[in-house]
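Justification of resources, computational component.

The compute hours requested in this renewal are based largely on the per-chain cost of generating structure records like the one below. Each record pairs the submitted sequence with a full C-alpha cell output. That output is archived, and it is also reused by downstream analysis tasks.
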Amino acid sequence: MRSRSNSGVRLDYYQRIVHRLILAHQEPVTGLFPASNVNSHAWIRDNVYCILAVWGLSMAYKKIADQDEDRAKCYELEQSCVKLMRGLLMAMMNQKDKVEKFKMTQSPYDSLHAKYSSKNGLPVVGDNEWGHLQIDAVSLYLLILAQMTASGLQIVFSLDEVSFIQNLVFYIESAYSIPDYGIWERGDKTNHGEPELNASSIGMAKAALEAMNELDLFGARGGPASVIHVLADEAHKCQAVLQSMLPRESNSKELDSGLLCVIGFPAFAVDDAQLIHNTKDAILSRLQGKYGCKRFLRDGYRTPKEDPSRLYYERWELRMFENIECEWPLFYCYLILFHAFQSDKRAVEEYASRLEKIMVRSEDGILLVPESYAVPQDLVGFEYQKPGSQTREVVGRCPFLWGQSLFILGRLLQEGFLAVGELDPLNRRLGAQKKPDVVVQVVIIAEDNEIRDKLAEHDLHVQTIAEVAPIEVQPARVLSHLYTYLGRNRKLGLSGRKSRDVGILSTSKLYSLKDRIFAFTPQFADLSRFYIASDNELMIDILKGEINFLKSAWDLLGRPLVTLVLKRIHLDQDKIPLAMIQTMRKLKSGYINGTRVMLGSLKDFLNTSAITDLSFLGSTEDGYPDRLHPDVQTYLDEHLLRSFSNRSTMNLRGGQLRPRTLRRRMSCKGAIKKTRSINVDSDNLGMEGPSPLTERRLSSIVPPPWLQANKQSHVSVFATTPEEGPTSSPLNLGNELIRENIYPVDPHHSRSAIDRRSEFVRQQEMPKILIQRHRAETNFADTEVEELIAMLRETENLEEQGDILQYLVDTQGLDFNTELEQAFVDDVVLELAGGGGAGAGAGDGAKKSPTIVLPTVIIEAATIPAGTGTDPDNAAHPSSATATANSNSNCVGNTSNTSSSSSSNISNHNNMSPHENNHDSSQSEGMLEEGRVVTVRDLLKGLYEKACQQKLWGLVRHTAGMLGKRVEDLAKAVTDLLVRQKQVTVGMPPNNEYTITAPLPEVELRQLIHDAYGDDESTAMLTQELMVYLAMFIRTEPQLFHEMLRLRVGLIIQVMAKELSRTLNCDGEEASEHLLNLSPFEMKNLLYHILSGKEFAVSSVARGNLSIVSCKSSRVSKKSQIGLGDPEGEDALIATIDDRQGQWLRRRRLDGALNRVPRDFYSRVWTVLEKCQGLAIEGRVLQQSLTQEMTPGELKFALEVETALNQIPQPEYRQLVVEALMVLTLVTEHNMVPSLGGIIYVEHLVHKANQLFLEDQRKVQGDATLCCAKIKDGKEQQQAASGMLLCGGAAYICQHLYDSAPSGSYGTMTYMSRAVALVLDCVPKHGEMECAIS
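The structure output for this chain reads:
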C-alpha cells in the first residue's frame, strides 16, 4: 500500500464524510438532492449550498494531485457539481415560459418554482400552492454558476442555454422592486402569504448581477456569443436599495440572520465596511444565542407554542414566540466563513468551538450539524422568565445538509486545504476595500459648425458631430433598443430584455460593434422625453448630479465618459445660455462640485474609457454570427440618418404681424383657471371641510387677465358672444374691451409698472354681469365651434389659445375633428411635425376626459425684439412681463400666411433657416396625407411644443396634462421612493389622499394621480414632476429623508405655495400662480429648500421669472428679498417681517407636512402603547394589541402610527400631537408610573395645554390676548362655533401656541407636561414627586 502524506490522509477523511453525508443522497438521474429520506422535493437554494462542500473539496484535491487517483477523485467531485448545476438548469429550462411571462408581469404566480422533484426535475406543487417567488434562490444559483465557471468548471453546454441564463439575468435584474417570499419562504412573518421586499434577496441579486457581467459561460473556450451582459445600472439600483434597508430585512422583519450570507460569503454584496460591521453587530446583539442564532424576532417556526395544524399565525399570537424562537447552528457556520474571509483567526476559533459544543455525534463518530434547537414544552415558562437559561433540544433534520456543507467548507479553510481566493475566484470579497478616486471624462460635441463657432467665442473648443467620425454619437434610446436584442431565442420562445431603461453607468461606456465605435448621450439629455428636458438649467443641474453619482458608483475598468451634444434647441435667443458656459468653464477647470473631471475630445479618451462589445447583435441563430442581425441593420441605417440631423422645430413664415383690429370674443376665457385646486389661503392647511376638491378655485396673481376665472365656475368676466362683439383698435386703451384674454400691446413706453398694476386691479373689480352659456346646453350649435376655431386662428397669444382649446376639450373632447381647411392644416401640421420638440414621444394616453395642466409662466420678455411693440419696462414686473411675452408669442393656428412668431428676425431662435419656410408637406414626415382630419389633440400638441420652446411653464404644464402626457420615469421614480421604504401619497388631504404602497405600472399611476386631483390636471402634472425630483434627491442625498416614512406630495405642494406666499408677502392665489409658473429647475430648487429646512428668499430675475436663493446669513433671516422693481431702478419692493414671529409655526408646518418625527419616535411610542390600553388620535385608536403583533423596530408598526397621525389634516397640529406623544414617552421611559391606565386621547392633552397656555397669557397680558385669550362676547362665540379662531389657528389651537418654542417656561413642552399631569389619572395629584423631565 502506498504511503500518503498527512494532508492526503486528512483529505481522504473529508472525502469519505462528503461521500457519506452528501453525495450518497444525490439522485443518479437528475443529480438533485432530496430534502430528506421521506421528502423527495429538491429546493434550489438548499441544493446549491449542499454542493459547495463538494466543489471546495474538488479544488483541494486539485492542489495536491501528486497521484493519479487524486486527479480522478478531483474529476469525480467536479462532475458531481456539474451534474447538480445542470440538473437545476434543466428543471428551470422546463419552465422557460414562466421566465418569459415574469419579465412582463412580475407576478408571484408566474415565477420559477422554488422546488422541483428530485426524481425527474418536474414541478411538485402548483403555482399558487407555495411561495415560489424567491429571487434569492435563482440569484444564488447564478452567483455560484459564475464562480464555478470562473474556477474552471464547464457547466453550460450550448448557446441556447446561454440565452436562457441571459434571461435569468433579466428575471432577477429588477429584484430591488419585486417583493418576494425570501430566504425563509414566508414573506411577511405572520406567514399569510404576503410577499415583501427582502434585503437578503436584493443583496443576493446584486451579487449575481455583478458576478455574471461580461462572464463567458464557456470559460476559456468561448467566443463573443457565450458572454453574458448585465446593465451596470441594474446592479447599482439593487445596491442603493440594499444600503438603504440594512440592517433591516423587510417591513415585518426588523432584523434577520439570513443577512449574514449577503454581507459575507457567498454574496459579499455590501461595499461599505461600516455597514457590514453594523449589520453583523445588530444580528449578534439581538439574535445570537447559545445554540446558534434565531432567524428573526418572534419566529414561531417549530417552537412549542406553534400550532402545527395551520400554516399561518394569528397576528396577536406573535408575542408568544418572543424569547423562545428556535436557534439555528447554521449561522455559526456562516460566521466562521465570514471571519475566515476577514482572516480573523481568533473569531474563527471562537465560533468553531461554540459550534462543536452543539453538534451531534453520529454512531460512527462523525460530527453532524442539526437544523435547529427549540425550548422543550415543559421549560417554556422558565425560559420566558429568564431568556437563554434553559437547555434546548434538537428539532428538525440532522444532519442539516445546508449547514453541514458550510461546516465542511469552514474546516477546509481552517486546516489550510483551501485559500479564501479559491472559493471566490471572481474576487467579490474585495468589494468593500477603498477604491481610488474616479476621474469623470466629459466630451461636449456641437451639433453643427455654427454652434461650434459660438462656443469658440467663449474660448471653449469642441468638435462637431461630423468631426468626431469614425466614432458615432447616438442618443440613449438607440442603446436601449439595441439591448432588446440581448437574450432573444426563437427556439426557446424568449424575447430578450423588456426594460427600456438605460442608466448613466451604461451610457458612460463606449461600445464596439464589428468595426464601428459608438458613444451614447445620457438618457436625461433625450429631448423627446418630457417637458422637464426643455429647461436648460435643470438639465445642467441633473448633469452635475450624474457626474457626482458616477464618482461614487463607477466600478468598471476604465474611466466613465459622459458625452453631451449641444444643439440648436438649447440656444436661448440664438445665444448659448450663460449657465451652460459657466458649467463648461467649471468642467474645464478640472473640478466640479468636488468631483475630478477632464474635458476633452472623444479620440483623446479612446484608450482610457471602458469599452463593451455588442457582440450579441450578430444573427447567430441564422448561422451568420459575423453578420449583423437584419433588424438591427435596418434600425441602425434608419436611425443613423435621423438621430442628430438638424431637424427644425418650428416653421416660421414671412409676413408682418396681423393688424389686431377685428377680434371676436368668446366665452371660454379662464377655462384653464377653473381647473385649479391648490389651496393656500385657509390657514388651516387642507381643512376645507366637506366641500369636494374640484370646487376649490383659484384666481390669479394681480391677475394676468387671461387667467382670471371667477369663483363661480360659469361666470366669465368677458363673455361677449361673437354676434355682439364690438370692434376695437389696439390703441384704444380706454376701451373696456381690451381687457380680455391678452394684455394690450402697449405702444406708449412711458407707463410705469405701477400704473399698469392699478389698471389690473380695476379690471378685477369689473362687474361680472354676463353669464357664460352652460356647457351642457343643448343648443350648443356648430356655429359656436366655428367661431372658436376662427378665433383660434387669429389670436397670437398662447395663453388665449390654451383657454380656447381647453374649452373645446371640455365641450367636444380631445378627438373632436376641427374640420379646418387644408391650407391651415398644413400650417399647423408643419409646425407640429417640425419634430423633436420636447415631449413629442412621451406617451399620450388617448384619454377623452378633459385633462388639464396648469400654465407655467416663465417670462421671456427678452425673446421679443423691441420693435414689435414690447415695452422694455415690462421686464420689471413679473405679471406684466408675462403678458407681453405671451401677447407676441407664437400661436397654434394662424391663417395661412401670418408669422407665427413676433417677427422673422427670431427665426434663428426658433432654429429654422429661411429657406425652409415652404409649404411642402414632405417636411411633415408623412403626418398628414391630403384630407386627413386635424383633431383638437393635434392643435394642443402644437401649442405644447411652442410653449416648451418659449418657456411658458404654466402653459406647458397645462397642455401636457390635457394631452395626458406622463413623466417618462414616473413609475421608476415612485419605485425609487418605495423601495427605500418611503410610502408616497398623492392628492390633497383630508378627503382625497391616496397612498401608494407598492410599485405600480405607469398607466395605473397616471390614473391614480388623475383621480386624486379630479379635473385639476396642472397640479396632477406638478405632482408627477415633484415625484421625479424627490426620487432624484433620495438617490443623491438620502439623508434629507431621515425620519420620514410617508411623502405626502399634496401637502408638500400646499406648503410650497404657502412658503412662496410668505416670502413674497402675497395672498395664496397669487402664490399658487407663482408656484405653477416656476421653471422646472426653480421648482426642484424650492423643493430642496423645503426638504432641507433651509431658509430661502425669492428674487426676481431679469425676465420676471422668480428664482429661489438660499439665505446664507449667519442669523436665520426671515426677510424676503424680492426685486420687483424695473431695470431703471425703481425702488425694489422689500417686505420685512418681524424676524422671530412665525418661525416656530413655520417650522412645525414644514415638519408636519413632511411627516418628520424625532429619532426613535416610533419605537418609543411602542413603549407608551405597552403601558396603556390604546392611544386615540383624530378618531383612530392604536390598540395595545399592536405590541403583541409587532416588534418596536418593525416598519409595519411605524406605518400604523403614521397612518393614525396622517388622519390629522393640518401639519402644524399634527406636529403638536407628535410633541404630546414625546412627553408621554418621557413619562414611560423614566418609569414614573407602572401603567398609564386606559385609552389616552392625545388631542385632549394638546387642547388642555392650549387652555393652560391661554390662562397664562391672560395673566401676563401676552400676544394671545388679542385673539384667543380675549374675553369673549356673543359675536366671537358665534365665530368660534363656526370653526374659525380669530388668529386663524388650526384645530382650535391658538396660533401663538403653535409659534412658541418647545423649551422655556412658556414653551410648548412645559404646557404639555402640565397637561399630562392634569389629564392622566395615573399621575399622583398630591405629594412630592421627583421630576425627571428636564
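The chain has a mean pLDDT of 78. Residues 68-93 form the longest helix (26 residues).
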